[in-house]
Each structure stands twice: as C-alpha cells, then as structure tokens.
Amino acid sequence: MKTLDIIVIVSLLASILSPFLFFYFADRILITEIVPLDQKTIQKPNFGDNVEVYGPWINDRHSFLPDWNEIHPVRYIKNLKTGEEWGNKNYSGELMQGVHNPSRLRIFDENDPYRIARGTVVDVFDNPEDGDWHIHLLLDDDYQYLTKSRDRPFMYIPVFVLFGVPIGAFLISLFVWIYRKKLVRIKNLF
After folding, report:
1. Is beta strand 29-34 parallel, antiparallel or unpaired with respect to 68-71?
2. Per-residue confidence (pLDDT) for residue 154, from 0 to 100
3. What is the DSSP-derived secondary structure letter of residue 173?
4. pLDDT block averages, 10 residues each, the chain of length 190
5. How many CA atoms lie within 13 A of 120 on its CB side?
6. Rounded to whole angstroms, how far apart are CA atoms 30 and 70?
7. Taken in order 108, 109, 114, 117, is the CA torsion positive or negative?
8. Which residues touch 134 (CB under 8 Å, ≥6 apart)?
C-alpha cells in the first residue's frame, strides 16, 4: 500500500469518526458562565480541573441558534482535587443579578432554580461581548441530565446527515480505490 493510499484511508476514517466523537462529547458538555459581578469572588478554573459548580439551571435561547442548557450565573465553584472554594452557595441576591440580557434565559424551576454540576473543565474562555467567563464541563455521569440532548431526542437528526455524507464518501472512495487496484492488476496480466 502506498503512502498516499494510507493518507486517504486515514482521512476518510477521521471524517467518519469526527461526528461520532463530537456528538458523544456534546451530549455530555454543560456550559457554565461566571458573570463579571462574581469574578471578584470566584477564581477562574483551569483546563482539566475537576470541579463542582452551583448556580441557576437555565435554558439559553437565541434568535438564530439552537438553544442549550447552562448553569448561569455560577455563584459557587469548588475544586474537587484541592478542596478550594470560591463564591457563595448561600447567595441571597437577585437570581439573575449581573447577567447580560436575562430575557433570553428560561429558568427550569422557578421554585428551586439552583443546581449542582460536577465535571472536568474542557474549555475556558472570556466572552468579549458580555465579559462572562465560559467554563465548559464534561459532566460526570450523575449530572448528564443537565444537558440539552436529554430533553430533545430529535436533536440527533443532524447526526444522520453528518454521518451519511462521510460514510457515503468513504464507501465510494473505497470502491474506486479497489476498482483501480483491480484495473492495475488486470493491465499487468497483459
């Protein structure tokens, strides 16, 4: 097998596996946000930290984007490895105090809005639009119910579209590759 053949096969396999990996992790990732008001008392976690966060469990809706679930705003974080804690689990201020454009957020449970989530930090970045720190958590198994995909099974429809195209391309390329190899072998016979 030539190097080019190996590169083509690996590329095609990667295009097939990428959506599987994306949807596996997207199903388990929860967005959490620390608003500028709370950044004075809450330390930003680092990639790889195993943390517990506490704040209102909400659904974030945008005009042209699909909605998703979040803990927003985070009022308390605990690093589960070091035991360090920041913020306040007994927060008594207004529920959405410090949140940019709170009208887009739907609180799941008005009577008991706060939830705890535990997981590993897989992404941390500053949002320049509102100043929030976005912390994406790969949730522990017991907390996966907090993510969006549990609520709406039809969100998996794009999976079929994403898989159909790369799988079809792989099968066609494989067929063409095998066909060309057979042609070369047939030509070598004469």
Report:
1. parallel
2. 46
3. H
4. 65 59 65 94 95 95 75 96 94 90 90 95 91 94 80 50 66 74 59
5. 8
6. 6
7. negative
8. 31, 32, 33, 123, 124, 125, 126, 127
Residue at token pair 């295009």: 15
- Beta-carbon contacts of residue 160 (< 8 Å; ≥ 6 apart): none
**What kind and span of H or E run contains 30?**
strand 29-34
Residue 13 is encoded by which pair of tokens?
A: 């396999």
Backbone angles phi, psi at 185, to 5 degrees: -65, -40
Q: Which amino acid is at 59?
A: N
Which residue bears the tokens 């709370």? Answer: 38
Selection from 37, 47, 27 nearest residue 123 by Cα: 47
Token pair 């590169």 in the structure block, residue = 7
Rounded Cα gap, residues 160 and 187, in angstroms: 40
Amino acid identity at 149: S
Strands, E assignment, 38-113: 50-60, 68-71, 76-79, 85-87, 105-107
Q: Rounded to an integer, what distance in angstroms lies between the CA atom of residue 44 and that of residue 105?
A: 23
